[in-house]
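Retro notes, item 3 of 5
We never archived the inputs for the magnesium ion complex last cycle. Fixing that now. Sequence and ligand:
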Amino acid sequence: MSDSVKEVLPTQNSISVGVRELEELRRKSIENPDLFWEPVANELFWFEKQGPLFEKTDAPPFGQWFGNWKTNLCFNSVDRWEKSARKNRVAFFWEGEPGDRRAITYHELYREVNRMASVLLNLGVREGDRVTIYMPLIPETIVAMLATVRIGAIHSVVFGGFTSQALADRVNDSNSKVLVTADGGWRRGKVVELKKIVDDALKQCPTVKKVVVVKRTGQEVDMDPYRDFWYAELMKGAETYVKPVAVPGSHPSYILYTSGTTGKPKGAVHSTGGYMLWVYYTQKAVFDMRDEDIYWCTADVGWVTGHSYVVYGPLLNGGTSFLYEGAPDFPEPDRWWRMIEEYGITILYTAPTAIRSFMKFGDKWPHMHDLSSIRLLGTVGEPINPEAWNWYYRTIGRNCCQIVDTWWQTETGGIMISPQTGTTQIPLKPGSASVPLPGVDAHVVDESGAELPENTKGFLVINHPWPGQFLTLWEDKERFDSVYFKRFPGKYYAADYAMKDHDGYFWLLGRADEVLKIAGHRIGTIELEDILISHPAVAESAVIGKFDEVKGESPVAFVVLRPGHGPTPATRRELMDHVRNNMGPIAVPGALYFVEKLPKTRSGKIMRRLIKAVVEEKALGDVSTLEDSSSVDEAEKAYRELQAEIHRGG
Ligand code: ATP
Ligand code: MG
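Structure as it came back at the time:
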């Protein structure tokens, strides 16, 4: 660890003033939610404020926020700036993959959103109806989301990289009436033919009556004269103002399916009032967005990070964001760094998977550009291993930018555990997401639900409802109750492992269902993966447990090597020794396979359950969110080859 990293770490046993301050704030917010959140709510616009701000309920999720207050998420994101100096400020700088550029001011966004709301009304969409949005990352995607909530309808954004079957399943689950798409989108210099995928999917989707098509890539597409309409044509005949519908705080704003890392995706339904307050507050508290900032959250709008921290959080705060349509390494692996330099981006919020792939490309690419505009870095999606943290801190942050490691989930609506640079600065600890935000009553408990002492690994639970909490799973109340509230009655079960240290910092230790039980020891897959990644030959790794008659489970590792390292028996032996020396003989993998890539979700998370299925020779289960099916074929091949070798006595 470099000296500069040490400087930001706390000295032993000295909790900084900042940490105490945050803890005090959090205590008050949980003891008296009304008192704490009312001034924050007053910074937003409400048509009506009737009834309690927060109310306990008997059934999961055990609380309701702004149940009878009336508001509109689109009004707060867009209209609120119409009579302020922000009206003419750029809301989004956008760059397409081919290099085309647009800048959209708040006022331009307001005009476009109103007309799109009129288009949706003309197509028969009404309050409570569902609209599926299947788009590339272009400004019209955001326009469609805002227009939907403006009229009180519910959007379901489906990531533009999903197959037609995955799209059809999500459309049918939500029974959408209208679908908004584009002719295509750009990815690695090629057109992804979105409209074709839609045509294929809709053969199975009887509820979709109308399709709106944005022209993006310009190739020829089939248009059904009764069903399909060009966006530009519809917008021509649209009204320039549509009154925003005043909906209750508890009205659903959107449905979003989880990543599907651990099983069949769950359709999380978010509220309007509580969700709005939560993303507004967390955007401000965590990122401290200022007037001079150009903020870039690299997530696709198809994920919750895109909903909360590309669209709603920045707009509710009147900030200026940057958006990029395409692949990070196109045409060369310096694409991101070039755009950061050119646009003068000040805040970068991305995922460990992206950081690890940039590490693999090498330092040469970021070093080609001046990254001195960056003042704050963020990460989300998976635990960030120390190697990646340090690389991010040194190479992108130039040893001087804070990193906000933000822990949260699709279900939580917004960031739950993170440093809060907009409230008070606290010392960083690489690998810890630090402390919970106000309103987040996070605890670490054992199997029986009893609170664990510090520095002890257990299950992360949230004891008190928080404003951004999801309302339910779409048309599956039973699954909602049983997945999240049954294991520890009355508490929200996050299904992640965590540990709280003596300073009150939380360490997220991977998924609770991704743990190895080796001869009575419980070892998180992530701990073993971190050790493998700390070896200079390893770029990425995934570890799973395989049934073993003697030990219960035996660790099995899949490894992606860095360029310049060969998949030889010598490398394999060296990696086994590396685990033995760093974790002990018990953790040494029973088998270690070399692959070119790991199976990941389309949001970049490792799908360990698929590797487990391969190794245990079982059915794969739901693969709708798998990014690249050849990764599973490769894992199967590596597995079979090694089995054959073992058979031959190799
Ligand atoms: P599914 O619930 O369908 O299995 P998923 O959990 O991957 O999919 P998301 O809601 O996108 O879907 O991801 C939330 C999960 O991501 C968290 O529960 C946690 O495991 C992981 N995660 C997110 N941010 C962090 C972080 N900063 N540190 C550690 N883990 C994180
Ligand atoms: Mg999850």
